[in-house]
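Recall that a protein's primary structure is simply its ordered list of amino acids. Everything else, from secondary elements to tertiary packing, is in principle encoded there. The following example makes that idea concrete.
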Amino acid sequence: MRARRLRASLRGWGGVGAMAVVCALALAFVLLLPVARSHGDGGGAHGGRGVAQGSQARAAQTCSEPEKQTLPPSREDGPTITTIKERPGGKRKLIVGVDQNSYRWGYRDPNGGGDAELEGFDIDLVRRIAEDILGDRNAVQFKAIPTDQRIPAIQDGRVDMVVRTMTINCDRIRDVAFSAPYFRSGQQLLAPKSSPVTGYDGTLAGKRICTAAGSTAYSTLEADRASGRLVPSADFSTTVPSQLDCLVRLQLGEVDAVVTDTALAASQAAQDPTVELKGEAFTTEYYGVAMKKDADDLVRRVNRILVDFREDRTGGWQASYDRWLSATLGDDAARSKPPAPAYLRGS
């Protein structure tokens, strides 16, 4: 019965759309890593609290520019990094929560065979961090983390950090510590090319919108509904574990539009030529590496790595952008590269 409903839903999308659904379903269901939901696996790192961590807590209470609420760079090892380096039993690896379904960010190439490695912009950054801290870019244990599990995975110690197109915002810096921004994006609308929806405007009246649970997109819709910016009859009750699931819902006709980060929306449009970005981005946001609140030494070290990553013209930020993102976001990387970082004073 489910298969008949699926085939019936696909007829209106044509052969290309059907192929896109197959690709999306393959990525979502066939190539999945085990989702990291277990507790107490001994993987996370713990560090001591200090004056700088207190500065972060005070900044969170008076948050206005969350992307600037991070610690200055340092190459010094502290308790968190020492714990990572001294893991017993040959487990000397950086444990990182990532996505595996975000095309060109963190994904497995469906043409790469059953043992295809994770790759993408976020994965390049993870390997750069591992190389700096452990001397080996492959010294990483990747854990697939759903959007709404990013913060719990950090707090529970299941991962050392999350590198997963995670927007820095005021709510989140109360729960986790962030690095300086490594990417600039914003919220944007994705819908079928044939849709009457033109953007984040009145054409969303009566339309069904999909977002990922726990995402900035969902909290933005909530805030805009309360403020009156979002048309009252728009329905954003559909939430899913990952953004790729929203694309599948859109292809099946179960929703009319998707709200997600511009960078992710562009990647989804590249996967399915029957959909497109509608209108302009209606927010400005920054991605950061998320870590535990008391992991001050790790935050400082990642910020030092990000300085080098930005400045490296042969194998750094620009090279990674050119390889993974220029095809979907365009050759003008300046729109996506965040400004020079700002750090907490006196920390």
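Confidence is low (pLDDT under 50) at residues 1-52. The two ends are 61 Å apart (CA to CA).
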